[in-house]
UniProtKB/TrEMBL annotation:
One of its GO terms (biological process) is RNA modification. It comes from Trapa incisa. It comes from the Eukaryota. This is Uncharacterized protein. GO terms for molecular function: RNA binding. InterPro entries: PPR_At4g14850-like_plant.
């Protein structure tokens, strides 16, 4: 059903311009773990709002959690460099948030 709605949106470009519609489409694909399609839906949304950005960031973070679970599922144990990489990622996100807050 979701892909049919996507087709309808493509046929009616005025719908694609609505951030709410784009966010819903991206969310639909993210919940189906179709990360590339979710990101494409994000990219074609011309008027991205805070919800758009939060959705795509959440999708990205959830995907990374899946990768960590996959790594653990293959009995590959994270080492210090793995933990350091995760911490660096969290710090970079934290810095971006702090820069945005101080800019307001």
């Amino acid at each position: 059903m979701g892909k049919q709605i996507h087709g309808y949106i493509v046929q009616h470009p005025s719908l694609a311009e609505d951030a709410t519609v784009g966010n819903g489409l991206a969310n639909f694909y993210a919940k189906r773990d179709e990360i590339d399609a979710a990101f494409q839906a994000f990219l074609i949304t011309p008027q991205r709002d805070l919800i758009s950005w939060n959705s795509v960031l959440g999708t990205f973070l959830n995907t990374r959690n899946h990768l960590l679970a996959w790594m653990l599922g293959e009995r590959s144990k994270p080492r210090d460099i793995t933990i350091l990489t995760l911490i660096k990622f969290c710090i970079s996100i934290s810095r971006l948030v702090m820069e945005k807050v101080t800019a307001i």
